[in-house]
Amino acid sequence: MQVSEIQVDGLRTDDGSSLFPLILQCEDALSLDGAAVWLTENSDSLCRKAFDHGAILFRGFPVQTAQDFDQFIAAFGLPNFTYEDSLSNAVRTNRTPRVFTANEAPADVSIFLHHEMAQTPIFPSKLFFFCEMAAQQGGATPICRSDVLFARLKRELPQFAADCTTKGLLYSHIMPAADDAASGMGRSWQSTWKATTPEQAEARMSSLGYTWEWQSNGCLKVTTPRLPAVRDLGDGRTAFFNQLIAAFRGWKDVRNDPSKSITFGDGSALDKAVMAKVIELADEISFDIPWQTGDVALVDNYVAMHGRRTFTGTRKVLASLVAS
Ligand code: FE2
């Protein structure tokens, strides 16, 4: 099996970092079974490359359906992270036991850069995406190296970087009483906490260190325990591992106001001008995955953030998460 590294416009090598993302092109049309054997043999090295580069885009592999994608992922031999067990805010639908639709928020809603579930104490180590059908227009998945970003923040916004490191973050949001698919954060409290009664939800929240307030309309306002804003990657790199940008820019729906969704861990507010600079720096070093139908991406969730651009037409991108 012939796989080669290719380059496309816009690849990043900020501050001398390894190419972001790494793109691997399958050069010979082969069966999915053959590709799966190759993936299994190279699983360790591919995972190391994903950690080093932040993400790998696999192009030209024989993956066409959700079942194919499931087989592609299974070949890596990594532990599955289920949506059911996660505290994700998004509404999702499973297509296979390990494959689900990526956030089903409407086409005109941007999903801003974030590390998957970094706003909760339980997060996946990696994500796989599969483009089952590319959108007519738009719909790219922007990805951003958080280690590169944090190095820039330390240089350009040293006080903010220090506050992130020492104070951590608190996230608040209001969960609906029933799934609301019109929102990027519309997962109900019952589904999130796997509860049918408020008492069950409270037991789960308290075991995880959350605080909460019930709303008169049956919704639930929750605040996380203090969560880290950065993560030591163990090799000299530190990642800006959080949901700050997404929460600050986009945690907005009929129930939620982004200006109230996030504070430093001591309750102090984030400075708007500083956040504008953080967002600008992140946008500057982001790469838009230019989805082609059949593409698969492996994103190391500790190293790279991801989001979703708005789009027109039908866009089918499936996702799967890997446990730590
Ligand atoms: Fe996500």
Q: What structural class should be given to the helix and strand makeup?
A: alpha+beta
Bound molecules: fe (ii) ion
Described by the principal axes of the CA atoms, the overall outline is: globular
User: What proportion strand?
Assistant: 15-25%
Number of discrete helical segments = 8
> Distance N terminus to C terminus?
30 Å
Helix and strand pattern: EEHEHEEEEEHHEHHEEEEHEHEEEEE
The percent range for helix content is 25-40%
Average residue-wise pLDDT: 93
- Tally of domains: 2
CATH superfamily of the largest domain: Clavaminate synthase-like
Low-confidence stretches: none
Key structural traits:
single chain; 324 residues; alpha+beta; Double-stranded beta-helix; 2 domains; seven-stranded mixed β-sheet; 8 helices; 27% helix; binds fe (ii) ion
